[in-house]
Amino acid sequence: MREYLRDIVKCVKCGRCRTVCPTQQVQGWESSGPRGRMQMALGMASGLEPSNSLITSILTCTTCQQCVTECPSGADPHQVTRAVRRELVALGHIAPHQIEMQERIRNTGNSLGDRSSRTAWLSETPVRGHSEYVYFAGCLASYRYQSTAAATYGILGKLGVGFLEDEQCCGSPLFRMGLDASDLIAHNSRQIKAAGAHTVIVGCAGCYSMLREQYQGFNVLHLSEFLEERLDALSAGRLDIQVAYHDPCHLGRAYGIYDAPRKVIEEICTLVEMDASREKASCCGGGGGVRLGYPELSGSMAGELKENIPAGVDYVVTSCPLCFRNLSDTGVKMLDLADLVWMAIE
Ligand code: SF4
Ligand code: SF4
């Protein structure tokens, strides 16, 4: 923790981050927001024993990075909170939902704990062998949104993108909760190397962020970045619908990928901006293990985001299956970007 002291003291306690933090918006307490979390981190760095309320506060951060965008003094409560999570794990403070996620992945290689085939969504046997570009599907598409995985691979297959023989969870759910994901990183890295790929293409914002941040030796492109350069080759038709685009935190604020998905959408149909979008986009409340560990809080954050959806749109499009799931649960009609493209080229 001590290596984060410099980051912690950057906080001048102005409170600006409190106005945007989704957990503080719902819960209201100082301890449920970034400024409070920074003070808790300071206490931990000074050797204080973590209390149960500190642990809950640290584990309810969705890792959305809205605090980072707003902070006028360059402090990064998001990184500090992640460091506290790692420290809590090192001290043996592991919450039941963290243990559950570890068990699911240890037993099945995926974050759902699903023992069925990861590639049940494949409609035909993929072409084996080396590919310069490969598709990384992610756990949620592979098991819960199989039509999205099939649509993504259907699109990418037309563009010569290959397939990973034995993909496992990218490790993001463990990593975001302060747990060790090194075995998964090693396993997937071997798969990508064996495929001979120089670039991995990802449809999920969480996988994208994990591969960019924690893997080495290859390029990572989000599906929208790959497609924006190849729209002509897709021969997509126009759909008579209006959609809004929800910027996933781990694609937008984390990596600045705002224009590529919009370019793809505008090629296909009418895009209407959310009331708060791009770097101001609200968090769906699902990330950082919050949906798993604190479902009621997570649902409340999704409910707040729902207020930003402009009236009259047919769908909200996104590029993150976790945002898709959390917002769908509030009754919003969602479409993954891949599903939208697939509708336009089918
Ligand atoms: S906005 Fe930055 S300086 Fe202000 S309270 Fe939050 S972390 Fe501290
Ligand atoms: S990352 Fe998001 S949830 Fe976490 S403290 Fe910052 S604003 Fe709040």
Largest sheet, in brief, is: 4 strands, parallel
CATH topology of the largest domain: Rossmann fold
Main sheet: which strands, in order across?
2-1-3-4
The CATH class of the largest domain is identified as: Alpha Beta
Highlighted features:
8 strands, globular, Rossmann fold, 4-stranded parallel beta sheet, binds iron/sulfur cluster, 48% helix, alpha/beta, 346 residues, Fumarate Reductase Iron-sulfur Protein, Chain B, domain 2, 3 domains
Give an account of the 3D structure:
With 346 residues, this protein is α/β, with parallel strands linked by helices. It has 3 domains: 89 residues, Alpha-helical ferredoxin (Fumarate Reductase Iron-sulfur Protein, Chain B, domain 2, Orthogonal Bundle), CATH 1.10.1060; 96 residues, Rossmann fold; 109 residues, 3-Layer(aba) Sandwich (Rossmann fold), CATH 3.40.50. It is built from 20 helices and 8 strands. Strand 3, helix 12 and strand 4 form a beta-alpha-beta unit. The longest helix is centred in the first third of the chain and has 14 residues. The mean pLDDT is 96. It binds iron/sulfur cluster (2 copies).
In summary, what is this structure?
The protein has 346 residues and is an alpha/beta fold. 48% of the residues lie in helices and 8% in strands.
Please write out the topology.
Layout: H1 5-9, H2 22-27, H3 34-45, H4 52-59, H5 66-70, H6 77-90, H7 96-108, E1 133-136, H8 139-143, H9 146-158, E2 162-163, H10 172-176, H11 182-195, E3 199-202, H12 205-214, E4 219-222, H13 223-228, H14 231-234, E5 242-245, H15 252-255, H16 259-268, E6 270-272, H17 290-293, H18 295-306, E7 315-318, H19 321-328, E8 334-336, H20 337-345
Parallel strand pairs: 1-2, 1-3, 3-4, 5-6, 5-7, 7-8
Bound molecules: iron/sulfur cluster (2 copies).
